[in-house]
Design a protein that fits this description.
45% helix; L-2-Hydroxyisocaproate Dehydrogenase, Chain A, domain 2; alpha/beta
Length: 340
């Protein structure tokens, strides 16, 4: 077992997603059974008591991998020496709030956090933004951390969308989720995202599209299900969960964040997965946008890399382009605030 613990900082440590995250991280679900961790929980002053209570529970669990837990409302303390930063806490959208107002409110959170990461985090820090609007919040944090931390150390969570897509396919095809590989989420973590199954396969390398056609009664029926049911349901799953349970996704979001970091740190071993990373111009996406792509990781410390060369039909390209256009509009909105 490694002797030096990995410092993991969770923002919004007193919130529900933070609470769902920290016990699994301490148990080794994210970084493996031989990597000790030091947890730092960052909260606003009003949330400190909840975070302190969670820290007491962590102590009571007596996790062998957990070396210490620190609770603070100071970003410089929270990110000091951090190797993995999970930016969960964000300003939720209130009733009647325009998207521009939401972007501005979150820029006031993720800008200072990015600045603190740039000032005191470990030089090899990796950052995943969970709090929505995640892609543009990651863009703001990365810009604020520059030039001390390279922008490509920042990513945003679209693994939740990826997992939702896999879950829907598994249910319809009557297979287990681990039998489905190479689903891709393109674009923004929003209603414009494009869940793409055109490259997805089953264990025998047969096409998911062929399997859907066989299951649903032909190619036309499969195409109708993808357009009318699958894509809207994956994109709108968060709203569906709020309607059913009365609050937003918690355990599934935490699980996806753990999946995201685990695959980035230890290697993705089941083909492509999905993550929103800083574009270098792949697939015509403007450089610098934080956009969801098909990615893979070798677990060698170099993070996720975009898998290039996948083909689009006209329908897919139109959906992807609409989501990229939304990301450009969000970038321009925060740029107008003087953040970028």
């Amino acid at each position: 077992m490694a002797s030096e613990p990995t410092t993991v900082t969770i923002t919004g440590g007193g919130g529900q997603i933070g609470y769902a995250l920290m016990f699994r991280i301490a148990a080794g679900d994210m970084l493996g059974p031989d990597r000790p961790v030091r947890l730092r929980l960052l909260e606003i002053p009003q949330g400190m008591r909840a975070a302190e209570g969670a820290a007491l529970e962590l102590q009571d669990c007596a996790f062998p991998l957990l070396r210490e837990v620190d609770v603070t409302d100071d970003p410089l303390t929270a990110f000091n020496g951090t190797r993995i930063a999970m930016l969960v806490g964000a300003r939720p959208r209130a009733a009647g709030m325009e998207r521009g107002d939401l972007l501005a409110a979150n820029a006031g959170i993720f800008g200072p956090q990015g600045k603190a990461i740039g000032a005191v985090a470990d030089g090899d820090v990796r950052v995943v933004v969970v709090g929505n609007p995640a892609n543009t919040n990651a863009l703001v944090a990365a810009a604020s951390a520059a030039p001390d931390i390279p922008a490509d150390r920042f990513s945003a969570l679209t693994r939740l969308d990826h997992n939702r897509a896999v879950g829907q396919l598994a249910e319809v095809l009557d297979v287990t989720p681990d039998e489905i590989a190479d689903v891709v989420i393109w674009g923004n973590h929003s209603a414009t995202q494009f869940p793409d199954v055109s490259h997805a396969i089953l264990p025998d390398a047969s096409s998911i599209l062929d399997a859907l056609a066989e299951r649903l009664g032909g190619e036309a029926a499969a195409a109708a299900w993808l357009d009318d049911v699958f894509i809207p349901r994956v994109a709108g799953r968060g709203a569906e969960i709020i309607e059913v349970r009365g609050s937003s996704s918690v355990a599934s979001a935490a699980n996806a964040a753990i999946d995201h970091v685990r695959d980035e740190q230890l290697g993705s071993h089941r083909g492509m997965t999905s993550a929103a990373v800083v574009s270098r111009g792949e697939y015509g996406v403007p450089e610098g946008l934080v956009c969801s792509f098909p990615v893979t990781s070798r677990g060698d410390g170099h993070g996720y890399r975009v898998i290039e060369g996948l083909r689009f039909d006209d329908r897919a390209r139109a959906r992807f382009s609409a989501s990229v256009d939304e990301l450009v509009a969000e970038r321009d909105a925060v740029r107008a605030l003087g953040v970028l």
